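Lab notebook, bench 4. The sequencing result for the construct came back, and we need a structural model before the next group meeting so we can plan mutations. Quick request posted to the team channel:

Model the 3D structure of this chain.
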Amino acid sequence: EINSGALEEKLSACSVSREGPPAPQPPCTQAGSEPNAKPPVDEDVRIQVRLPDGSALQFTLPASLPLKEVKQRVKNERPGDKTLQAFELQTTHPRHMFTPEELKKSLKENGLTPSATLFVSQGK
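Done. Here's the predicted structure in token form:
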């Protein structure tokens, strides 16, 4: 049961006064959250990798991880797949093939946060 008086009191504490100078207000917080809570040091990235056979692999990885780690995880997931012996990773929107230098950069530096879909392209 919701106590409407308590709810109105809480809402009025979070509202902005439009008349005169603003009075000091207690900080508005969500239930169960701490006012001084720090954001996570490293955000997670959801990566979906579409394979040539139409199947997909999904990973949730730290944003600081280098893109080459995604490539290695794809190989580890399908160790006997000969089509994955030499491949490249690419995006389609915008169309971009990742270079060896970009594979060394983090997922965040490559603009793949908070989520991305990568496609496996047959290598040379």
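The beta strands are 44-50, 56-62, 87-92, 95-97, 115-122.
Will bring this to the meeting.
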